[in-house]
Amino acid sequence: MKSKNILFVLALSLGMFATSCSNDDNEGETIIPLAGKYNLSQTGTIVNGQEVLVDAPQNQSGCSRDYLELKLSNAAVIGDYNGESCALTQTEGTYVRSHNDLTITIGNTSSVSDIMNLTNKELKLKDKTTGVITVYTR
Fold first, then answer.
1. How many whole angstroms from its chain centre is CA 52?
2. Is the distance from CB of 74 to CB of 94 less than 8 angstroms?
3. CA nearest 91: which of 76, 81, 110, 103?
4. I need a surface site. Which of 30, 49, 105, 118 has the fewest CB within 10 A?
């Protein structure tokens, strides 16, 4: 009876060990959900191998911060506050994520960015054409 219990415990342990080991197929891709509303925080580029980021000049003083909203339905909404009354202009389009690439399409114009960082608090994108880095916070 003891030998059956020992075999059972050994088999159970091996099964748990085998299921805890997995093949990492995401090749550095983050598993944080992309959908959400992100406030524009900083922009910049890489100069001499160093990131140089400044507060986003697109955010008008005295207004709420501009934003990017990515919905579960793959709709993208860009919110821009401007003018003395901080009027909100929303532009709608779509987005597609492929691994660590994010493509946002507004009308006939698409931009492809590398997702440099995605956490519960931050989305950092680098435009593949211009090299401009944009940091959004939740």
1. 20
2. yes
3. 76
4. 49
Place of tokens 């860009």: 78
DSSP 132: -
Name residue 74's amino acid.
Answer: N
**Candidate CATH numbers 1.10.510.10, 3.40.50.360, 2.60.120.10, 2.40.128.280; the one for domain 2-137:** 2.40.128.280
pTM of this prediction exceeds 0.85: no
Rounded to an integer, what distance in angstroms lies between the CA atom of residue 71 and that of residue 103?
Answer: 14
Sorted by where each begins, the domain ranges of the chain are: 2-137
